[in-house]
């Protein structure tokens, strides 16, 4: 799905405004760091960013893409049906949000 993107100024930075599928508006701001990708495709995240975002060794990180952006985010299980990260529970080794679980319950009752 192609998302709308407009250019805005935020805290002195010119940034792209992105509307994420949750309806949340996020400004992308340069972190002031440029790193080279090594021959295996790895990039070292600066310690300051790992500390700021509480990323520790072994923590799962999800890679998201949006247009020509690659976004790293702390991994949170998503609903297998709608992709929501809100009120997600594990059920038979899959994740379901409470809304989809409720929809399934309603289907079963009909
Ligand atoms: Zn769902």
UniProtKB/TrEMBL annotation:
Species of origin reads: Paenibacillus plantiphilus
Q: What is this protein called?
A: SpoVT-AbrB domain-containing protein
Q: Name one Pfam family in it.
A: MazE_antitoxin
Q: Which residues form the SpoVT-AbrB domain?
A: 32-77
Q: Which UniProt keywords apply?
A: DNA-binding
Keyword DNA-binding set for record: yes
């Amino acid at each position: 799905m192609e998302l709308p993107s407009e250019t805005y100024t935020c805290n002195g930075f010119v940034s792209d405004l992105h509307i994420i599928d949750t309806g949340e508006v996020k400004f992308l701001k340069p972190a002031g760091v440029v790193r080279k990708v090594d021959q295996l495709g790895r990039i070292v995240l600066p310690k300051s960013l790992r500390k700021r975002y509480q990323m520790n060794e072994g923590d799962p990180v999800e890679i998201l893409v949006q247009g020509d952006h690659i976004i790293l985010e702390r991994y949170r299980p998503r609903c297998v049906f709608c992709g929501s990260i809100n009120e997600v529970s594990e059920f038979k080794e899959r994740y379901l949000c409470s809304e989809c679980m409720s929809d399934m319950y309603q289907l079963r009752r009909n």
